[in-house]
Amino acid sequence: MQKSTLVGIVIAGVIFAVFVAVFIFYSSGAHSGWDSKFQDGFEQEQDAFETVNDAMKTYAAQYTTSHIELTAAGEIKIDGAVKATLTDKQKAALSSIQTAVSEQYLSSVRYANGRIEYRYENDLYRIVYTTDGEKPAYMRESGEDVKFKRIHLSGNWYYFRQK
After folding, report:
1. Which of 100, 123, 128, 147 could disulfide-link 163, Cβ–Cβ 3.0 to 4.6 Å?
2. What's the domain count of the chain?
């Protein structure tokens, strides 16, 4: 057998092994350890989540809009333009939330359609607050067909993990 053929077979075998390992990881539920990390992080920082939520609700009422984005830097964006920044207390709360689950980075907080969503960088996890008190029926935009696990955290708070 030629050396290049052998190298090709080894590379194909490694790629196949990686795919099998990823499949086993996701199908076994091994990543459910994240569930408890998010739950614990939420419990430890619930006051900080409430502080950021109050800010989001205030800005939604002030700008009479149904869609607001809060960046990880504490900037309030409406229609893509920065309109305000958080107070020092609110920035400290946001910082606490960002480190509540240290392995996952909070990328943004969004207010839309009666939900305040804490979105994490890889978009597989979210913490969601519903302003109407209803249990959220979807993880992402209502038209997307995404399988997810939903866990009730407290009051109007829910944790989502994409399956």
Report:
1. 147
2. 1
Domain region containing 149: 34-162
Would 135 be classed as within a structural domain? yes
What is the pTM for the complete model shown?
0.72
Does residue 2 fall inside a structural domain? Answer: no
Q: If DSSP codes are grouped into helix, strand and coil, which group holds residue 117?
A: strand
Return the residue matching tokens 């994409």.
162
Closest CA to 116 of 160, 161, 69: 69
Digit-coded pLDDT (tens) for 97-118: 887 765 667 888 888 888 899 8
For 33-50, b/e burial (b = at least 16 CB within 10 A) is ebeebbbebbeebbebbe
Q: Please list the alpha-helical segments (H only) found in the chain.
A: 3-28, 33-44, 46-62, 88-100
31 Cβ contact partners less than 8 Å away, ≥ 6 residues apart: 25, 161
Q: What are phi and psi of 102, to 5 degrees?
A: -60, -25
Q: Is residue 138 part of a domain?
A: yes
Tokens for 150, please give them.
């939903």
Residue 23 has pLDDT above 90, yes or no: no
Question: Does residue 84 fall inside a structural domain?
Answer: yes
